[in-house]
Design goal:
Layout (H helix, E strand, L loop, with lengths): L13 E6 L4 E6 L5 E6 L4 E7 L4 E6 L4 E6 L4 E7 L4 E6 L1 H4 L3 E6 L7 E8 L5 E9 L1 E6 L4 E6 L4 E6 L4 E7 L12 E3 L4 E5 L5 E5 L4
Antiparallel strand pairs: 1-2, 2-3, 4-5, 5-6, 6-7, 8-9, 9-10, 10-11, 12-13, 13-14, 14-15, 16-17, 17-18
Amino acid sequence: MGASYKPITQPVGKTYVVSTESDDVTVFDDSTNEVIRRIPVGHRPNRNAIFREHGNIYISNEADDTVTVIRIADDQVLATVPVNHRPFRMLPIQAINGRDEMWVLGAGEATTGAGTVAAVSGTEHIVTRTIDVIDEPANWVVNPQKRLFIVGSSCRQLMVYDFVSDAPVGLTELGHDPAPGAISGLIHTSAGSLFILNNDSTVTVLRDQNE
């Protein structure tokens, strides 16, 4: 299948706002702040992420376990992809390790909380593989050495995934429950420290041994 997309190399002049209550995405014109259109998506959308290499924006729909793929050039819905349970964070990894994938982090079923990553093909819009991670994942962040850190909100664990070897390489026990809030509660600094925001209003600071 030939490529029919245009990579994004500069600002597109639009802002996409997810509305959980109305199950749609509102598109604003950045120059006028006026609404251009509203795009229906899945049930209870919660976040978005841009796959710049393909010129698409992805919307995670938590209540129906799907992601919606929208072409930014004309705001057309290209696909609705079944992924994992309770998808809520997304990460395009082509710029990290060359794989043509959007990673979708799922919090797992309410009864088990078994977290997974669904790897969605950027060209075929299907899940090509599923990776098991820790229970009740809350946040993730990538360091300059191409390692992904994932924290669990109730299992009190930190999982490390190496993008170079494409495999998990470590698991660390934590003393507090990381906060699963809407903002990113996980920060990796240029000095090699990992800051984790916890549910009890504390912060855990770890040293990245790979720095």
